[in-house]
UniProtKB/TrEMBL annotation:
Keywords: ATP-binding, Ligase, Nucleotide-binding, Protein biosynthesis, Transferase. PANTHER family: GLUTAMYL-TRNA GLN AMIDOTRANSFERASE SUBUNIT B MITOCHONDRIAL AND PROKARYOTIC PET112-RELATED, GLUTAMYL-TRNA(GLN) AMIDOTRANSFERASE SUBUNIT B, MITOCHONDRIAL. It catalyses: L-glutamyl-tRNA(Gln) + L-glutamine + ATP + H2O = L-glutaminyl-tRNA(Gln) + L-glutamate + ADP + phosphate + H(+); L-aspartyl-tRNA(Asn) + L-glutamine + ATP + H2O = L-asparaginyl-tRNA(Asn) + L-glutamate + ADP + phosphate + 2 H(+). InterPro entries: Asn/Gln-tRNA_amidoTrfase_suB/E, Asn/Gln_amidotransferase, Asn/Gln_tRNA_amidoTrase-B-like, GatB_Yqey_C_2. GO terms for cellular component: glutamyl-tRNA(Gln) amidotransferase complex; mitochondrion. This is Cytochrome c oxidase assembly factor PET112 homolog. GO terms for molecular function: ATP binding; glutaminyl-tRNA synthase (glutamine-hydrolyzing) activity; transferase activity. Coiled coil: none annotated. SMART domains: GatB_Yqey (SM00845). Residues 10-159 form the Asn/Gln amidotransferase domain. One of its GO terms (biological process) is glutaminyl-tRNAGln biosynthesis via transamidation.
């Protein structure tokens, strides 16, 4: 599929030059997200408002776990709309960066569990949905800036501890 669109393979190769993301991940972004936006607006690859280096920078942010993949989609939409902004600028403006502060996350998880004893009870009784509810509550408290996997790890550690 990378061959059908004029310039798409070249776009992919240029992104690959500047990113540490795996080729599979890059291909998925180029074929799904990037191509989807092009088709929606009926644009050729050469007319794309998003450059290969902008997409590479965005993928590097995901790779470094600076942002989640759902935040990356938001950043991509913004890149598409507002030329001249870098992914990092958009992340900062929209406060999309993931919390890197483990201690803050630990405290938040503990506070969330203390505030919702019923959910914790359900969880201890073996209700698997309860953990998702807690993850949701913590994410809401962090404005969606904490990685769900990280939250889950912290919660499980605290529950077993």
């Amino acid at each position: 599929p990378l061959q059908n669109e004029v310039g798409l393979l070249e776009f992919f190769q240029n992104v690959m030059k500047e990113t540490r993301a795996e080729p599979k991940k890059v291909a998925s972004w180029v074929l799904n997200t990037f191509l989807g936006f092009l088709k929606q607006q009926n644009l050729a690859v050469s007319e794309s408002p998003v450059t290969p280096s902008a997409l590479a920078e965005l993928l590097n942010l995901v790779e470094r776990k600076a942002i989640s993949s759902s935040a990356a989609k938001q950043v991509f939409e913004e890149l598409w709309r507002s030329e001249g902004k870098t992914p990092a600028q958009i992340v900062a403006e929209k406060q999309l960066e993931l919390m890197q502060d483990d201690e803050a996350l630990e405290q938040l998880c503990r506070a969330t569990m203390e505030a919702h004893p019923q959910v914790v009870m359900d969880l201890k009784k073996g209700n698997p949905r309860a953990i998702n509810k807690l993850i949701g509550l913590v994410r809401k408290a962090t404005l969606g800036r904490a990685d769900p996997t990280a939250i889950k790890e912290v919660l499980e550690r605290q529950l077993s501890g």
